[in-house]
Amino acid sequence: MLEPLKHAVGAWNFIEVSPQHMLGRFNGYLKAVVLRINEAKDMGEFDRFKFYDHMKGYLAAPPDTLRVDEKNLREHYIVNVCSVAMTTNYKTDGIYLPADDRRHFVAWSEAKQKDFPDKYWNELWQWYEREGFGHVAAYLAGLDLSGFDPKAPPPKTPAFWAIADANRAPEDAELADVLDTLEQPGAVTLDMLISRAPSGLEDWLRDRKNRRAIPHRLEQCGYVPVRNDAAESGLFVIIARAITTADGFDGTLTSEISRSSHLENKSPRPLPSGLASTGRKPTLTAERTPALARAQNSSATRDAPGGAKVIVASIALAPRLTAAVPTGAFGLWFARTIGLRW
Question: Is-above-0.85 flag for pTM?
Answer without folding.
Answer: no
